Amino acid sequence: MAAPGLRLGAERLFEMPAVLERLSRYNSTSQAFAEVLRLPKQQLRKLLYPLQEVERFLAPDGRQEFHLRIFDPSPEDIARADNIFTATERNRIDYVSSAVRIDHAPDLPRPEVCFIGRSNVGKSSLIKALFSLAPEVEVRVSKKPGHTKKMNFFKVGKHFTVVDMPGYGFRAPEDFVDMVETYLKERRNLKRTFLLVDSVVGIQKTDNTAIEMCEEFALPYVIVLTKIDKSSKGHLLKQVLQIQKFVNMKTQGCFPQLFPVSAVTFSGIHLLRCFIASVTGNLD
């Protein structure tokens, strides 16, 4: 089951002359992305399709339940998504406002996605990486867990809104449950919830609580594995297999494919941008 409107086949990534020729017809952002496509093949795969990097470590009979290519956009689709995340005079990307209650949240008609996760999971760092093509957008990142205390709203042109939610667990806001549960239940234009899990430690008790909440509210959600630059290949593979098994057996509303990312190396960031653009209807 592929996302609608996308041309399948990460294999096409390595048809370099044809891909680069097509991208050369796009604007300057795609020209920058074309430079990314000139990276060595292994480095390129790790940057754009990090989940497929672990595929070669799996035995053939272990790949059947390992969902690698459900969302498998072409390089052109990834370039289109990068354009959406690029700030220009005609595509303003801005912080809008913050809110501690749903009735204080801005009334924005465009589709919305939100990011939730444990304190210190790297949520604000990930959002800052997603907005790296709009450097004037200020996303506050702190080394101290629990820095985000409010729901922070960012608009991406006329396309969609990104919401940075407070972290749960250590140093979570006192009104976290009321704030987040009410938002998730009542925000009508919420298209997808991105639930961040630390790839180093895997799913924790508080993550299970958040997953149960998404399931109870029948929300479509995605598990994003953060900090993959801090895990060895063997440890990352172990975590991916354990979490994939959990998703297959224990969830109904979770998108079956995991999204490993690093806000440090930018591995998986391009693919995640593309998925956000797709689920908000911007790549149809």
From TrEMBL:
Query: Which InterPro entries does the entry mention?
Result: EngB_GTPase, G_ENGB_dom, GTP-bd, GTP-bd_ribosome_bio_YsxC, P-loop_NTPase
Q: Per its UniProt record, what CDD domains does this chain match?
A: YihA_EngB
The reply to whether GTP-binding figures as a keyword in the UniProt entry is yes
Q: What are the record keywords, sorted?
A: GTP-binding, Magnesium, Metal-binding, Nucleotide-binding
Q: Name one GO molecular function term.
A: GTP binding
Q: Which GO terms describe its cellular component?
A: mitochondrion
* Cofactor(s) named in the record: Mg(2+)
Q: What superkingdom does the record give?
A: Eukaryota
Ranges for domain EngB-type G come to 109-282
So where does this one cross the membrane? none
Q: Which family does it belong to?
A: Belongs to the TRAFAC class TrmE-Era-EngA-EngB-Septin-like GTPase superfamily. EngB GTPase family.
Q: Which HAMAP family match?
A: GTPase_EngB
Spell out the PANTHER family in the cross-references: GTP-BINDING PROTEIN 8
The name this protein goes by in its record: GTP-binding protein 8
Q: Write down the species.
A: Pan paniscus
Q: What lineage is on file?
A: Eukaryota, Metazoa, Chordata, Craniata, Vertebrata
Record gene name: GTPBP8
